[in-house]
Amino acid sequence: EAGVTQFPSHSVIEKGQTVTLRCDPISGHDNLYWYRRVMGKEIKFLLHFVKESKQDESGMPNNRFLAERTGGTYSTLKVQPAELEDSGVYFCASSQVTGLNTEAFFGQGTRLTVV
Amino acid sequence: QKEVEQNSGPLSVPEGAIASLNCTYSDRGSQSFFWYRQYSGKSPELIMFIYSNGDKEDGRFTAQLNKASQYVSLLIRDSQPSDSATYLCAVIPSGTYKYIFGTGTRLKVLA
User: Fold this and answer.
1) What is B88-101 written as a DSSP string?
2) Cα B80 to Cα A67, A114, B39, B43, distances in angstroms
3) Is A100's CB within 8 Å of B92's CB?
4) Which residues of A touch B97 (CB under 8 A)?
5) Out of A56, B25, B76, B84, which could bridge A48 as a Cys pair, Cβ 3.0 to 4.6 Å?
6) Contact residues on chain A for B31, CB-CB shorter than 8 A
7) How confident is the model at residue A102 (pLDDT cuts 50, 70, 90)?
8) pLDDT tens, chain B, 111 aa long
9) What digits encode the pLDDT tens for the residues A60-70?
10) In a 3-state reduction of DSSP, which class is residue A91?
11) Which distant-in-sequence residues (6+ apart) come within 8 Å of A68 by Cβ?
12) How far apart, in whole angstroms, are the C-alpha atoms of residue A31 and residue B109?
């Protein structure tokens, strides 16, 4: 069974440009999460989808970030326009059910560098 | 005060020794606690989770939870060089389903 896959694995863009990250969760997983790790800091929550609905977007930094999950399958995270402080590793995770003791499976991350 | 705190390390232990990794959290209502292992450049992978006070064992790994002290730990017995990685403590606070992570502890097992 395929795990959580993220595209691209690396992206280098200039400040002011737009970047779109994609996440394909494990098939059948209704829950999809986006997290981000800025260098030297902890992995921080961005938002949580249940199917196509945003359950919790309290971690989204500002309105330059837009996440979508079309049809409850894959998800995209767009950053427009990108700023230097957006650099970091963006992780996607998925889980089968919504619950307190549910394992979240992580993708390998997209390393975003804004120059 | 950070929500989840870990010593960043590195923690160095000789092969065959017990490695002890510690984590404290601030939300007293937190209910679920997870330990993930992350090799450099790879995705975090779950080692185990715990939600009741006490110990939970799985092979060479033992998670310990003390809710009164707001403390969770991971013991790795008979440490192997392949255990060298960053260990992430994650907590699900009350009223939410999101993970709050610590910064991770880098473990080095010396052959």
Assistant:
1) EEEEE-TT----EE
2) 40, 38, 14, 20
3) yes
4) 31, 48, 55-56, 98-100
5) A56
6) 100
7) confident
8) 779 999 999 999 999 999 999 999 999 999 899 999 999 989 999 999 999 999 999 999 999 999 999 999 999 999 999 999 999 999 998 888 899 999 999 999 999
9) 999 999 999 98
10) strand
11) A75, A76, A78
12) 35
First-last CA distance in chain A? 37
Note the pLDDT of residue A55. 94
CA distance readout (Å), A18 to A11, A82, A83, A90, B79: 11, 6, 10, 15, 45
Q: Radius of gyration over alpha carbons of chain B, in Å?
A: 13
Q: Where are the beta strands (DSSP E) in B3-99?
A: 4-5, 11-14, 19-25, 32-38, 45-50, 54-58, 61-66, 71-76, 85-92
| Between A47 and A97, residue with greater pLDDT | A47
DSSP assigned state of A74? -
Q: State how far the Cα of A21 lies from the Cα of A10, in Å rounded to an integer.
A: 10
Cis peptide bond prior to B81, omega within 30° of 0 = no
Q: How far is CA A66 from CA A75, A78, A106, B109, in A?
A: 10, 5, 20, 41
